[in-house]
TrEMBL record:
<dbReference type="InterPro" id="IPR042235">
    <property type="entry name" value="ZP-C_dom"/>
</dbReference>
<dbReference type="Pfam" id="PF26562">
    <property type="entry name" value="Ig-like"/>
</dbReference>
<dbReference type="Pfam" id="PF00100">
    <property type="entry name" value="Zona_pellucida"/>
</dbReference>
<keyword id="KW-0325">Glycoprotein</keyword>
<keyword id="KW-0732">Signal</keyword>
<keyword id="KW-0964">Secreted</keyword>
<dbReference type="InterPro" id="IPR001507">
    <property type="entry name" value="ZP_dom"/>
</dbReference>
<keyword id="KW-1015">Disulfide bond</keyword>
<dbReference type="InterPro" id="IPR017977">
    <property type="entry name" value="ZP_dom_CS"/>
</dbReference>
<dbReference type="Pfam" id="PF23344">
    <property type="entry name" value="ZP-N"/>
</dbReference>
<feature type="domain" description="ZP">
    <location>
        <begin position="568"/>
        <end position="837"/>
    </location>
</feature>
<feature type="signal peptide">
    <location>
        <begin position="1"/>
        <end position="21"/>
    </location>
</feature>
<dbReference type="InterPro" id="IPR058876">
    <property type="entry name" value="Ig-like_ZP"/>
</dbReference>
<dbReference type="GO" id="GO:0005576">
    <property type="term" value="C:extracellular region"/>
</dbReference>
<protein>
    <recommendedName>
        <fullName>ZP domain-containing protein</fullName>
    </recommendedName>
</protein>
<dbReference type="InterPro" id="IPR055356">
    <property type="entry name" value="ZP-N"/>
</dbReference>
<dbReference type="InterPro" id="IPR055355">
    <property type="entry name" value="ZP-C"/>
</dbReference>
Amino acid sequence: ENDSIFFRWLILLIAAINIEAKKKPSISKFLPVLNNSAILLTPSLASQCGFSMKIDHLGNAMIYTSLQNCFAQNVKDEAFTTAFQLRFHGSQLAEDEIYQMAETCHYTAWACREIICDHNYMEVSVKRAAPDNYVLPKNPIPEARKRPIDAGFRMTTITFFTPAEKVMKVIDAQRSGHGIANTPKRLVLRSPKTSPETYTQNVAGVPMLVVKTSTVFEKKWLVTRIDAAAACSVFFTADTITWYLPRRIDPLISFGQPKLLEVYMGIDGQRLDAAEIEARRYSLTVTDTYIISVIPIGAVGGYYKSHVQDGQYHISYTVEPMIEMFWTEDATHEGTRYKVFFPITTPLLPRPPQVTDRTIAAERVFKLELGYFCPDVALVNITFPSEVLSVTECRARGINVLEHMSPNSSYKVFTLEVPFTDPVVQQTSQEGATVYSLHLVFGLVVLDDFAPFSHAAYVQATLENIVPPSVSGGCDYQNFYVLVKYGTQGLNFQTAVGKQILTQSLAQQYGFAENGTHFSFIVDTTCHYAVELSSIKSRLDVTLRNLETNTIIKEFSVACNFISSLTECFPNGTMTALAVKLESVPGLNPSQLTLRDPTCGPTYSDERYAYFVFTGNSCGTTRKFLPNMMMYENEISLPDELGAKRASNSEEPEYELKVSCYYDINTTYAVAFQPRQRRNEPYAENAKGQLQVAMRLALDDSYSVFHRVEDYPITKYLQQPLYFEVELLTPASPEVSVELENCWATLDQDRTSRPRWNLIINGCANPVDQYQVIFHPVWTDARVQYPSHFKRFEVKMFAFAQDQEDLSRQLFVHCDVMICDARNPLGGVCNGQCMNPDNGNKGQRRAVSDEDKFNHVSLGPIRIS
Ligand SMILES: *[C@@H]1O[C@H](CO)[C@@H](O)[C@H](O)[C@H]1NC(C)=O
Ligand SMILES: *[C@@H]1O[C@H](CO)[C@@H](O)[C@H](O)[C@H]1NC(C)=O
Ligand SMILES: *[C@@H]1O[C@H](CO)[C@@H](O)[C@H](O)[C@H]1NC(C)=O
Ligand SMILES: *[C@@H]1O[C@H](CO)[C@@H](O)[C@H](O)[C@H]1NC(C)=O
Ligand SMILES: *[C@@H]1O[C@H](CO)[C@@H](O)[C@H](O)[C@H]1NC(C)=O
Ligand SMILES: *[C@@H]1O[C@H](CO)[C@@H](O)[C@H](O)[C@H]1NC(C)=O
């Protein structure tokens, strides 16, 4: 800069600081180049020759050099050139890097005296002029009467005032570290601040370091001398940095009051204008005694740096203000330009790291923030009770570690996210809650000198265990009773009864009652909402759904025998039978049912059942004699005229119930009660001939592993899917296929036993079953050569309700299997078509009369857990 007697280089270290290698790049050599040969600049040479260097917190190296440094090429005290060679340490593998640089500055505004106070040296440059008479002046002589000392004069001795006089030969002074040089017009004196030839003087309460000299020049018999002095101050108070610089620096002023013409404040050798000073919240005040500059700690222009002291994190703030003054002395009119650099670093301030816990337990992740650090701190590792993980290892296993800089780059924070599922998180159970805790120690390092420090933290989060709502219930002849217990989330679900949502009005109808932890309601079994009604049970399904996601939280079914006995045979010969409408025959009107004698209608009936009372010798009851027994039989069906009407619509009689009573001498009891769907149906016959077909239960829908025979009874929980497979065992051609005609469940091993719940009817899933059978296709694989020899279906485990309290504990599943020949199709089930009574395919079933085509398979018991 033209108005400055300094060169200033800012060298940006391009290489990023490499933490892993623990290698700190730095300028290893800093070599002024003189006549193409580089000279290593040692610290003592730097202070003798007018160089200083510092590396700031960002790693920038800043080199300051006096215009009149020992190595400058000086052209008439107007142009100054300095050349450098900078050598950077390479890594172990790479070569050192060398940069050449040179800078030329022009400066002509020389004051009589120019004083610089830099970090390591004091410099004074004075106009080389002496009074006319070449005698040692007792009193200062006005400038006008001074004359330049020409080049013929030779420096011989120098006197240092310490303050005692200390005379040295110039050459000895140079050897002891002082820089003493003549330029074309000036004398330059430079002394290291540590030199024994300096002394401290209290100037207006401010201790100042002073170097004061008188240099003797000789030319033949002529002798003259030039005085040169510099004084530098050291003083500040903490928290704000306040720098007092005496306005009148006595050691530099002979007498009288100097006239202060210019004062500038600057940072890092750069002048600042008033607006900049204000923007940075600095202040510069000139009083009668002092020039006072104030810099708040942390202000722009300085920087923080990290330190570790006794294992604790500390910071310091460093700023390098500059004051520049220009004054003239009344007596001599000689001007002095005084420039002082004053690097100030605060004492270490403890700055304990802070951990902010930003965890939201419901997110199941610990979120921590660790702050606040200077930018020169790095997180190296995290120590958990079980292991130490580097930051890279943390990231690799899903612990998210990030580094954040504040927007103005003044501080750094680290964030850490540890999922609750990570093994480093400890879990303990408390009443109804799980406590997650995390002990950790952050391992940090100050990058500059790799000083390690650590900070321990402990956090915990509590998550209430989520217990879903539960449903229980039962039924009697009249009603289903349902009790819903809320889970931990309270009443935040939707309830559906059957297919209907439990609205407020419906709730009212159902006698809904609520007490804060439970609600209950009662559904009449005769109510048309009753979901399932067959000959043996009625069933109510209750579904709880999540309001937000609409997913099912809980499904509950209660199924009851709401009629305990369907047929009774009294000792006096009276028989009673209850014919219950099957859901699979929705069009049936029970009041139209009769016994064999069409005049024998129900004693009473309603829309769901008909109750018949008859005797052994009425209503077409037949009688059979068996050994030690007598059997009475009758049938309940639609009378012929109604049946015929249906037949003309090519429909089958839909309902037939065979009622039998066996009587022995002493007791009577009911043994059979068989609703049948069709007349003449080959039904419930025992298997004939060899076993051709097998049924087994797979463990899952891959149908690769099966329960073995010796596993039975096997246990399943309610609603657990059961995977059935039926296989044709007898070797047969691929044209032969197995088809499932009917499949049903019973409580008893006897396939004809009651009650019975239909799963598959005529090859179709029972349409009234809420948990319908799912058919699974069969593909060829290692086990399956011909898919046509297999049938697979899935049904959810269910239970019969035997009485109001207990669900019966086991069931058996049976199937009627058809063996079909593709070359000679029989139609119906053999077509692979579902024979749903609603789809009009009924006639075809009639064609199958070949009972040999049937096989019967059974499986069980399957127990309910
Ligand atoms: C540098 O070179 C100049 C001329 O090129 C010469 O006068 C001077 O003595 C040399 N200095 C050194 C230290 O070699
Ligand atoms: C940087 O910003 C923080 C807040 O974001 C503030 O506290 C601090 O004083 C700022 N530093 C500087 C140097 O502006
Ligand atoms: C973890 O980092 C700290 C701080 O840098 C260091 O002192 C310690 O040795 C490191 N521990 C391991 C196991 O690397
Ligand atoms: C609410 O009703 C249920 C079932 O009747 C009962 O177990 C529970 O104790 C009741 N809770 C309160 C707070 O009354
Ligand atoms: C037969 O006994 C039953 C039950 O005891 C009774 O209800 C019925 O009336 C009796 N029938 C006759 C004809 O006595
Ligand atoms: C019927 O009762 C007689 C005697 O009262 C008894 O000997 C006979 O075993 C009983 N028959 C049956 C089938 O229980």
